[in-house]
Amino acid sequence: MNDKETLIQADKGQQAIAIHLITKDGLEEFLKGRTVPQRAALEAQRFAGEAGSHAILPEGDGWSVVTGVAKADALSTWCLAKLPQALPAGTYRLASAEPGAALLGWVSAQYRFERYLSDPKPEGPRTLLTGQPKAIDGILAEAAATALVRDLVNTPAEDMGPTDLEAHAEAIAKPHGAVVRVTRGDALQTEFPMIHAVGRAAARSHAPRLIEIEWGDPAHPRVAVVGKGVCFDSGGLDIKPSSGMLLMKKDMGGAAHALALAQLVMDANLPVRLHVLVPAVENAIAGNAFRPGDVLRSRAGISVEIGNTDAEGRLVLGDALTRAGEDKPELMIDFATLTGAARVALGPDLPALFARLDDTAHALIDAGTAVDDPCWRLPLYDGYREFLKSDIADINNAGTGGFAGATTAALFLDRFVPEGIDWAHFDTFAWRPSAKPGRPKGGDALGLRAAWHMLRKRYSA
Asked: What residue segments make up the domains of the chain, in order of their start?
């Protein structure tokens, strides 16, 4: 991707190619003021004003762009996102509107993941001008956070193991003077036994750890953000089929969201005491791998029978949530690529949201809707706790019967969050199986901006 600062700029009257916004119903009126060659050009390109379509319009010695939008006076995040991929490098401005929310889609559409290409094809920037320069820094921060999630998730597990997640946490924390603590080795086994058990079969270079970031004034409200950092998930001894393992580099997508949210909070200097926790492991197979039927002791003192080693994400999160709860945060949010059941229920685009408090759930849903980052609430239904019963331990990590898999996973996590804490859980896919305007195939941030805008509204001074 080009330098994000070159992708949107303040409009100071510089030379730029005009973009005309047209609704389907407004096309006839627009054509009345056009010359015969211009109308002929639009007809030749079969431009009918459909949202997302565009055409090139001759303008004297140059040209302009006509693009269809659903509403010309209320632009969405993604309504212009096709254009940067279709137009040549250059500087553009909207002819009769401010881009507003569409600025983020314009920047995000120019994301490229080229780390492993031996001969990447550099492209010049498509720059969009705005008459609202105060909005630029916030848009660029959100675009950078989105790109961070995409980069981390797209990177293969060999180059994005627990050590690499730790390095990224350090890089995010350092510019803000945040403190990073990492627990590994014997200390991890003693203090966070479930994180250690899940990750102990990995190679030494991918050894498990708990990564913590602390930032902000201790007098400010404490907010904990937890992200599942399973850098690769083989399924463990309950091994996945090859088709199920193919995308498991993305199983640290929750950690990517947590780190990106931390970056947004610190960049904005939000008045909170931030505590970020990333349990980073690889769920590998070796002679010392944890087994189906084992009983693990957790940091909370709760014993967990292992019904399935492929339900490992909730184990590492259990210890991390327990640690986060010990400092009594006012709010706790976790992100995790936790269950296939959430994807069956809601598909790839909608993160499943679970929350203890209705007000928090509504605030997250409303924030996501407002910024085109929707999520959908599923129930923390107490009646399904019976699916997690164990005959020999306090709880089983795998629900029985195959019903309500996303809910039973969330109920498992709920057991490790102390009572009285306002807690929300995102079961997110962190992946886009097919491209959409501004959102390429691959890793993606789903639920990140919903959480960020909720936090900003709740805690801005």
From this structure: 4-110, 143-459
Q: Is 314 a catalytic residue?
A: yes
DSSP string, 340-405: HHHHHHHTTTS-EEEESSHHHHHHHHHHHHHTT---EE----GGGGGGG--SSSSEESS-STT--H
Closest CA to 260 of 242, 286, 278: 278
- The arrangement of secondary structure in 4-110, i.e. its CATH architecture, is 3-Layer(aba) Sandwich (3.40)
DSSP 59: E
Question: What's this model's pTM, rounded to 2 decimal places?
Answer: 0.97
Going by the DSSP 8-state scheme, the letter that residue 181 receives in this structure is E
- pLDDT 10s digits, 405-422: 999 999 999 999 999 999
Tell me which of 82, 126, 249, 314 is the catalytic residue.
314
Question: Any idea what DSSP says for residue 205?
Answer: G
Q: What is the pLDDT of residue 293?
A: 98
Confidence of residue 41 (pLDDT cuts 50, 70, 90): very high
Give the integer Cα–Cα distance in Å for 403 and 20.
Answer: 51
- How far apart CA 341 and CA 408 sit, in angstroms, is 10
Q: Which amino acid, one-letter code, is at 76? A: S
Q: Do the beta carbons of residue 139 and residue 103 sit within 8 Å? A: yes
Range 228-263 burial, b when 16+ CB lie within 10 A, else e = bbbbbbbbbbbeeeeeeeebbbbbbbbbbbbbbbbb
Rg, Å, the chain Cα set: 24
Question: With 80 as the cut, is the pLDDT of residue 461 above it?
Answer: no
Strands (E), 220-351: 222-227, 229-233, 273-283, 295-297, 303-305, 331-336
Structure tokens at 59: 């303008």
Report the candidate in 294, 293, 337 with the shortest Cα–Cα distance to residue 193.
Answer: 294
What percentage of the chain reaches a pLDDT higher than 90? 95
| 143-459: in CATH 1.10.3210.10 | no
Residue of 240, 356, 456, 458 marked active site: 240
Looking at residue 439, the DSSP 8-state letter turns out to be B
Active-site residue flag, 240: yes
As a whole number of angstroms, the distance between CA 70 and CA 68 comes to 7
Rounded to whole angstroms, how far apart are CA atoms 95 and 65? 10
Q: Where are the beta strands (DSSP E) in 254-328?
A: 273-283, 295-297, 303-305
355 vs 344: CA distance, rounded Å: 20
| Lowest pLDDT segment from 24-33, 100-109, 171-180 | 24-33
